[in-house]
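Quick question about two entries, pasted in order.
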Amino acid sequence: MDTLAEQLLSGGVQLISQPGKLDTPGGGYGFRFFDIDGRTIEVSADVEARKHRRVEEKEAIPVRLSHVVLNSTDINATRAWYEQHLDFRLSDTMSIPHMGELMHFMRISNQHHSMAIARGPHTSLQHLSFEMRGIDEYMRGSGRVMRSGATKIWGPGRHMAGDNTFTYFLDPHGNTVEYTTELEELDEDTWHPHIYDLTKPENADQWGTANPMNEMIAKEMHNDVDRGVFVAPPV
């Protein structure tokens, strides 16, 4: 942790706090800094693991945070920053021939992506994705949210990049959230990034069960402008 802080400082990254003991739930040791777009990033170590019970078959309860997708006005600059400073690696890219690259899928393990960077009109959150126990639990969870009256904007379907299932909803504050499962695990020694053309419907949804991606869905995922860039939130 201390070495990383020194490396970030030497690379011109603005630290919000110095490495030290964390007083947040779970404790640990860590610090905060701004990324290239002004988001507050925290890294930590030795955080106490929360004890939890096993999620059983047919229980539509998320088991973990799968990934986060961030909107950026310059996805290549943001990608390069995370590669340089935090050792993220490119898994795949989504593009449209007449528009160029639209999304980079980034990983820090053999999981296809823990973060993706999407091209947007401003810096903001695109969506958060929650991993379910399996396909049946994913479908049961999607159905429960649909029956609740929440707005479903896309899905259910299965993406090409990452090979994971998807259903996207709007939460009460207008943020996009996703239920997913079966995100691909890669052989990092042999993996080479693909460029998927989104004009081919199967690259957005292999199954063909989801409503087609359109401007309305994209607009919802642009979200509101993040007015907290380069302003550290309270701890």
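Here is the second entry:
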Amino acid sequence: MNDDIERSRRRISRRRALTLGGAVGLGGVLTACASDSSSGSPTVTPPTSTATSAPTGAGSTVADLLARAPQCALSKEETQGPYWFDVDSIRSDLREDRPGTTFVLALRVQDGAECAVDPSAGGIANAVVEIWHCDAGGVYSGFESGSSSGPGGGPPPGGGGQPGASGETSDGSYSSGDQEATPTDDGTYLRGAQTTDANGIAQFTTIFPGWYPGRATHINLKVHVDRKTVLTSQLYFEEVLLDEVYATTPYNSHVGSRTTNASDNIYDATGLVATAATADGYLGAINLAVDQ
């Protein structure tokens, strides 16, 4: 395993993560969103590095990528997998000190009925988008000893069950009633949530996810509206991009056989993320059509 990943794992604690991650309460975020909405149509500002660094022919802004991504495709409901718990953390930067390639992800949540008429319409404001994914070595925060790539070997690779389920259900500021797994440690890296703006867009800064045995590379997500989960799904990436990223440090220290999209029993093409290269990593975007 890459030395930077090993050192980073040893430094993590939940208290430090929430302090340094700048987590804030949902009420304050929604108040800010309402204030922004009343002052006119907000714009989504991509990282400054994306303005000129995208390859010719590829979108270099969030708006470009959202237009390039599949329009108003009703996102497939998929398993939340065995590594979810209610971290109850509103923050845009999920990295903490995880080593890996910078990945900025924008997700537009749309009302499926409205965007079916106009693909650019139906953005749902003040929805909460929550994402979580493994680090460059294939391990999830909160489950370092229980992840498939962790020292404990983890749950079955299919990811369809809830090994370690606590019997508890979420009751945080944006999620209520979803079954949680029991964490094996107090890590929170690469987990968090953001509220959508007036256009239905939420944006995160994270690292490009790694992989673990038995599953294609993916990012898990939930969309919550009024504390009700209206979508649980997973995001995927083109194989050419995965080969490119995993040839670099620290990903290339992770040995073994990677499961491709075609070989994954959960993969669905509606979850493919549109991406563009930036000066320090990648920008990705996807449209998420939901039934409210």
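Reply: The chain has seven helices and ten strands. The beta strands are 102-111, 128-132, 165-171, 176-181, 191-195, 201-207, 219-225, 228-235, 274-277, 281-290. Hope that helps.
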